[in-house]
Amino acid sequence: MKKGMIKVSVMYPNGEGKTFDMDYYINKHIPLIEALLGDVLKGTEIEKGLGGAAPKSIAPFAGVGNMYFNSVKEFGKAFGPNTEKIMGDLPNFTNIEPVVQISEVLA
Amino acid sequence: MKKGMIKVSVMYPNGEGKTFDMDYYINKHIPLIEALLGDVLKGTEIEKGLGGAAPKSIAPFAGVGNMYFNSVKEFGKAFGPNTEKIMGDLPNFTNIEPVVQISEVLA
Predict the structure, then answer these.
(1) Is the Cβ of A87 closer than 8 Å to some Cβ of chain B?
(2) Digitized pLDDT (tens) for each residue of chain A, 107 residues in all
(3) What ipTM does the predicted assembly reach?
(4) How close does chain A come to B26, measured CA to CA in Å?
């Protein structure tokens, strides 16, 4: 399982005038990240926001990309030199500035 | 894998004066949810926030609990009657009002 791993979640907040091209995201952006990070990226989980706590409410995040790494150090080493290429692809599918969460998977 | 499943993430935003007892959360609150929801809950992933995008920044969320279900309908049916019991346990470990995201796992 993923217990003990580092999980980096890139979350795209919904909002007025915000756009998010899920098709590009999943078919172009995620494969780009996978190609750039290589073996250091231990797994991904890609989400499409459906809703929030209240019935029929809009999801807080239009999309979320979760990436798993063995350590913060390995993540930094792999992501650092590719940050520009990865961030430079964002305008191709969204006008949202993502929120980034780095977590340890406890269980 | 979890592709096609419904993922419900309960996220506790960090902030000034906010407290979060991770020990209680993982040893009491999560087991409470597991006991109440039973077999309908197909899996969980519990996170402890370490940081954000900027080096040495505070994590957007102190903790995140992810729960997996086969469908939104199954989630609603299992969670609905237990909402009061689950939400009533929150003051025992945090003063944070959580953000809830319901997502479909695309990949």
Answers:
(1) no
(2) 699 999 999 999 999 999 999 999 999 999 999 999 999 999 999 999 999 998 899 999 999 999 999 999 999 999 999 999 999 999 999 999 999 999 999 99
(3) 0.95
(4) 8
